[in-house]
Amino acid sequence: MISNNTGNEFTILLVDDREENLLALEAMLATDNRTFLKASSGGEALRKVLKNESIGLIMLDVQMPEMDGFEVAHLLKSNPKTKDIAIIFVTAISKDEQYVMKGFDEGAVDYLQKPLDINVTKAKVNVFERLYRYQQELKQSLQHIERINKQLEKFVYVVAHDLKSPLTGVIGAMSLLEMAAESPAGIQQEELLEYITHSKEASYYMANMVNSLLDYSRKSMDQQAVEEVDVQELAEQIAKLLFPPKHIKIRIHGPLPVLNTRKLKLQQVLQNLISNGIKYNDKSEGLIEIGYRDFTNHVEFYVRDNGSGIASGEQSTIFNLFQKASNSATATAESSTGVGLSILKLLVEEQGGRVWVNSSPQEGSTFYFEWNK
């Protein structure tokens, strides 16, 4: 079905086998923001309805040759695509209850007797136009709610994924503190303070992320706050609170820019890429590098690692849902679900950018993503 409706126009299909009746009815009902389609038979009416999904009301004559209005209404109401269109029967036949009830049984929402009373006809059509507009507004609201729910589902996964690394670090630090309590002579005071400081910072980091998620759950995309974000400071914080093992160094080629953006989303993209660089690094001396290039309307960030790399045939598919690289490092990595990069791609594209990777097996990977200023 196609839509011929533009803007706020209300489309009415007039069905009558007499041309003069069609012209008179159109002249009676014509107002701004109304569009009229006309059919002179039941068959033509059915064809027009199936080709135009924007029809909001059908004014349907009952007495027509070949196929009467009752048959047309029955066919429309039996089709899932057309069953919700309002139908007003227009008829010159008997006002007896049996005819009126037959019309309602076939799906009519109202009944007008010829000759038509101009004021009554206009008033009834106005009512059905308002009802149609209320229905369209409700439909748009439901679609908007569905989009928000889908966004929320994505972010619930991403935030849960992102909370895992600092939480693992906190658990590790707590385990070391527990060992220190059992064997005080085996640990220096400075180390003890370092573990406590890291745990405290990671806890604040996770609390901020949870608060951001709660804020997100209450707001649509357009309502989410845009704030000034020092990307250098953000990257340093992420690198520290991911608790990289001692054999992996994280080098930031800064200073990275300051952007007015939605902080949570940029944080999630950077954390996902840095976390993957740590998780999938198979070198005895691992290196992760973070940098950027500045363009007129956007910034191009990169996260480079010297890990196991990705085969060329898989580089175009790893951003697909549930798609994982098949090399040994990633295939056996804990929590490799194939979902993270897919959601990362959606996050970047929501900001109007794109993400891609250049990689060579055993030499490492460089992930690039664009972020609008």
Give your account of this protein's structure:
It catalyses: ATP + protein L-histidine = ADP + protein N-phospho-L-histidine. GO terms for molecular function: phosphorelay sensor kinase activity. InterPro entries: CheY-like_superfamily, HATPase_C_sf, HATPase_dom, His_kinase_dom, HisK_dim/P_dom, HisK_dim/P_sf, Sig_transdc_His_kin-like_C, Sig_transdc_resp-reg_receiver. The protein is α/β, with parallel strands linked by helices. The protein has 3 domains: 10-116, 3-Layer(aba) Sandwich (Rossmann fold), CATH 3.40.50; 146-224, Signal transduction histidine kinase, dimerisation/phosphotransfer (DHp) domain (Helix Hairpins, Orthogonal Bundle), CATH 1.10.287; 226-373, 2-Layer Sandwich (Heat Shock Protein 90), CATH 3.30.565. 47% of the residues lie in helices and 20% in strands. The chain has a 5-stranded parallel sheet with strand order 2-1-3-4-5, with helices on both faces. A hairpin with a 3-residue loop joins strand 11 and strand 12.
